[in-house]
Amino acid sequence: MAAESRPSFPVCLSSALASRLAVDREMLLNLEGEHLTLVGLNGIYSWTWNIRHLRNYGYKRDDFHFEAGKRCQTGVGYFSFYTPQGKEIFRVLNQMKGEYKRRNFKQPNRVAETNLPSPRKISMKLKFLSLLPRRKPKEKKSDRFEEAKNEETSSLQEQKRSSVVSAAYVTILPETPSGSNSASENKHQTDRSMKKRFRAGDAWKHHGY
Length: 209
Hints:
Layout: E1 8-12, H1 15-21, E2 26-32, E3 35-40, E4 45-50, E5 54-59, E6 63-68, E7 77-82, H2 86-105, H3 119-131, H4 141-163, H5 179-201
Antiparallel strand pairs: 1-2, 2-3, 3-4, 5-6, 6-7
């Protein structure tokens, strides 16, 4: 079924808004599909706002206004248009939003945007995972075998080093004399001491005793 054509509403912009958007003050506001489009009287399209990205909208007695989100073509901002048909624009815009919801949220194969995690949740989850301690990689059997083999080789080398004594630390002791030589030396020393004692004992003869 072909979509119903939407009407155009003549609107008047303030001098500041017309200068900001670089358009004429007298324009047309078209409501078609999922967009609000600002069109010049010569039929040239200038700015477009998607109804999904409007934060809010409303009307007064002599104007229609809306607040655009950051995803809109103009970025974030408040836009007000002088028109006596603000209530009619508001009614048509509500009808467009209702059709958009029925068209996009009743299809079984469409994934609802609300089920998708927000970028903030994803960044928080990644930050939490980065704080978790990292697991050590599992050692392979071949690596453990090589490590045990290297430890055994190093222990054998240490044993060989400890068994070899440097010549600088070897002390050569004098030979111990045999039993016969020691006995003869003791006998000579005894004879010398006896002679000394005898000579000292004969000293009284020289003093007239």
